[in-house]
Design brief:
Helices cover 44% and strands 22% of the residues. By secondary structure, the chain is of the alpha+beta class. β2 (77-85) and β3 (94-96) form a beta hairpin. It is elongated and about 100 Å long. The relative contact order is 0.08. It catalyses: ATP + protein L-histidine = ADP + protein N-phospho-L-histidine. It comes from Hyphomicrobium nitrativorans NL23. Keywords: ATP-binding, Kinase, Nucleotide-binding, Phosphoprotein, Transferase. GO terms for molecular function: ATP binding; protein histidine kinase activity.
Length: 390
Amino acid sequence: MALRIPRAISTADVDISDRLASRPTPQPDYQGEKLAIQDLTSRMANRPGEVLPRLTALALELCDADSAGVSVLTRDEFKWLALIGKLSVFEGTTTPLNNSPCGVCLEKLTPTLMERPERAYSWIADAGISVPEVLLLPLLVNNGEPIGTVWVVAREGHAFHAGHARLMKDLAVFTGIALQMIEAEAALKATLKKHELFASEMSHRVKNFFAVTESLVRMTARHSETKEEMVDNLLRRVVALSDAHTLAQDHHAENDQEPVPLRTVIETVLRPYRGPVLTGPPILLAASATSNLTLVLHELATNAAKHGALSTSNGNVRIEWHADSSGLEMTWKENGGPTVNGPPTRIGFGTKLIRNTLASVNGAVEKQWARDGLHVRISLPRDVLIGYPG
């Protein structure tokens, strides 16, 4: 007698969407549905952030379900949001696009009903989730693009029917609109925050500009033999300082796509001061990183001119860099300035600005307050480099 090998359970085996139309459907509660829609509309207009939790709560209630939630598509996986019921403990988890009931629903773009899907999807069984039935509806934005699903899981012994599918379809429309509104609100807040930071940066840089200009006037006066020489030297340095300030301001420009040599960035920023010692190979920076690094170097030079090596006649700065497949490493070393007795007692805006600016391009900064002067190590990832040796 031949040994019978059990056939593997497939997605088609658990998809019972055709049963929705054949199951008895009770008389709809149109008044209750109307009140629910009115409540959702009010929340959308006044409190968009409350819409998703309210939507899933309504889905749970109107479908007499065990659990409900929203799965938002992000690249090749879904993220579970606004979960309610027994599955709420899985809030924020992710599921695969190409191996999940949500993926099947988006492929069909129709109401999808599955029975015991854990038989076909091992990750559901491995998570200890028991799903008698799950009803999923696609979430679509205005242009018909699918962005996720809204779903309900039945209680043991209960079954979904066409009436539930109709209700969930209406809720799916509101869910898609709500997600767009939430995204728009988040984008607006991010823009406002960016503008607030920009205002703070500009205020900080303008103050520094005048402080450094005052320092340049004093230093130029001390090292000029005649008034004419002082004026000439001072004008050159102030113009160079203005160039560096303008280059740093381009931190917010979005139309500059041309790569820039790293050495050019450093020389432009430090032109107002005594020539730094530069050591490093030719490297081209992507436009996105050029302005960021300019701002960082401008801040370091400003602080050195106010408090560090560039504030004295004998001080200088040495900048070295190298790059490989992992990214760019740069060191800034000051010496010949005032003796450093340790790190500052508080973190100033300039330090925060440097950290945030580098973090925005996945870079990092480390500072060491050596007695002979500040040492700074700057790291930038490989994707900011257009060209590097080797």
